[in-house]
Amino acid sequence: MSLLIKVTDIKESELTFEAKYIKEVRNYDILTNYMSDDCVPYPIHQATMLWISEAGELGEIECIYPIMVESKEPLELSGVPQKHGVPILEVVSSEDAEVWIEYQKNTFIIWLAANKPIHSCIEAANIKFLVTAESELIGILCERVTIE
Fold it and tell me: Structure pTM?
């Protein structure tokens, strides 16, 4: 079984977030305004934890010592349909997932699936949720990352 996160809807709402990379512990973290004690935690990899609110919004995703891939070129999303709003997520399966980080300067992508084409992009603040034609979340691109 592999990781499968579905985008079930898009909510017209504001997303605020804090994105950090802590060099000392190789920790990549995106924390949003939807994080609360009511968020449901999902261990999606031995080094990655995901929290989703009861309504399906991303609360937080944290990767500690993830697999790393350095990118020479920024991800090209021209021609990919973009929608604005906050994706509503449903974790269908999270067993034996492979998660890795592609990074470039103060931008990183948390990849949740390999070799799947990006069909659309949901933009909320400076986070882009990368989605397949089957509504599967395959990546999260985050800009404006604080490096500590």
Answer: 0.93
Rama region for 50: left / alpha / beta (φ>0; ψ in -120 to 50; rest): beta
> Cα 75 vs. chain centroid, distance in angstroms?
14
Tokens of 22: 């802590």
Q: Which residues of 71-100 are buried (b: 16+ CB within 10 A; e: fewer)?
A: eeeebeeeeeeeeebbbbbebeebeebebb
Query: What totals of helices (H) and strands (E) does the chain contain, helices first?
Result: 0, 15
Q: How does DSSP classify residue 56?
A: S
The 10s digit of each residue's pLDDT in 1-58 is 467 899 999 999 989 999 999 988 889 999 999 999 999 999 888 889 999 999 999 9
Q: Kindly list the distances between the CA atom of residue 102 and the CA atoms of 12, 60, 142, in Å, as whole numbers in the listed order.
A: 28, 18, 11
| 66-104 pLDDT per residue, tens | 988 888 788 889 999 999 999 999 998 866 678 899 988
Query: CA-CA distance, 20 to 48, in Å (whole number)?
Result: 14
Q: Which of 137, 125, 142 is nearest to 20 (CA)?
A: 142
